[in-house]
Amino acid sequence: MRLRIVFNGSVPKDDGADAINEDQTATDESRQRFAVSDGASESYDSARWARLLANAWVAGGMAVSRQGLEQVISEYERACDPSSLSWSKRGAFDRGSFATLLGVTVRGAAARIVAMGDSMVLGLPIDGATLSFPYSLSDEFDRRPLLLSTSRDANNALFDRSVARGCITRWPLHPGAVLLLMTDALGQWLLRRGASASSCAVLLAIRTPEDLHAFVRSEQASGAMRRDDTTLLHLSAEEA
Amino acid sequence: MPYAAEISRANPSCFLFVIDQSGSMDERMEGGTSKAAFVADVLNKTLYNLITRCTKADGCRPYFDVGVVAYGGNGVGSGFEGTLSSRILHPLPEIEKNPLRIEERVKKVPDGAGGLVEQSTKFPVWFDPKNTGGTPMCEAMRKAAEVLVEWSDAHPNCYPATVIHVTDGQSTDGDPEPITAQLRQISTNDGQALLFNLHIDATASAPVIFPATEGALPDQYSKALFRMSSGFPPHLVGAAKERGYAATGESRFFGYKAGYEAIVDFFEIGTRASQMR
Questions:
Q1: Residue of B53, B55, B94, B276 to mutate when probing chain A, most A C-beta within 10 A
Q2: Quick one: how far is CA A127 from the chain centroid?
């Protein structure tokens, strides 16, 4: 099996603010590696951190391990050059940057999924059912998620064996199956509707950046969706 | 739901310190530090924390208007010196740009191998210890209320103002409870101003943070400050519990012998419902 990109788009919190969209995606169809990363607002440079995480995942250089993460942190530190920063930027840099990582690869007839933080993937149908991972209830988005950090100490909890096990799953794929990777505002919107057929149909119909923008702004205006950077990556399974 | 407005550059919130600089603040605390030195340290660290929390790669963002009302023998006025002394409130980036000086300090940081190493760090100083004269707490609270009314009128849809009052509790110009009751009613459409009283004391009593009753407090001053403090909005109780406090719906934003850490926790609990963006 292989996954094909049907749509990949993002809407920033505010129009005209693309430069500070802290959601990042990276994809490589030839290698069958796909990633979404959502940089946390309270971070020094979460857009850069999210981009590095997503790129490292897609390049295959980042196993979810301390060693793999250390390489990305080192790259982030080199890029930020903390010795050159003002006191306030240095203080913010020392607080760290935080981001989710949702990564998908294909192995044979299955998708291997790693989800650290509150970015979510919806699969339909998987074994005849609609599945979501890592969350299945909208309330789960109200908890403070564990995020990947540039601050090494903040990552300790992620490498607890039971936590790490809960970040990985494997879904069988068959032709026509769809994976929708999304950041938290969209994930919460979807699970509040129980990932109903009608709400899934709305997301499946999005094909252009304009479609996504109109949908997101409409839901935000009605109060149905939290105002946040919002990203959707639509993948479709087909025979290799 | 109140206290849910997003804090953004277009819709900032307000953080107002009210600081006791009276003569009694000369008293030494456990460890030998004067109360005035403790207050200056708390203020400097809290501003540093606030600024670094609001700073990104592109600079310090104006998520907050911040001011200091100081009171003591010289009356009531801005607690800032130099450029910042011209008025009470300033956008956070102005405060970031105008410390009195920047000191080189040494802090211990993890060495990556389970130990600690010393690292030189730059630490901005806005306040030096001051202590003189009486304690015109009522006048200070009236000034704070004036500032908050003006700010709230100008920011009707913003997250309401947060006031942190640091004192040793002995007002010399009357009973401050009535004016603080009025201050707590100053509101935006998102809720009433939150008043956190931090009572510093040189006695050996144990710290009491976010209590629900006056029972564990040692004297009339701490009990009065408890009554002057805002109650926990119900939806913030869970946030306080997450940070390890035994808070209930009856708890007040009050800390007896609380330190800098409690102020940071208060700030993070108080703004938990909102998102800085």
A1: B55
A2: 23
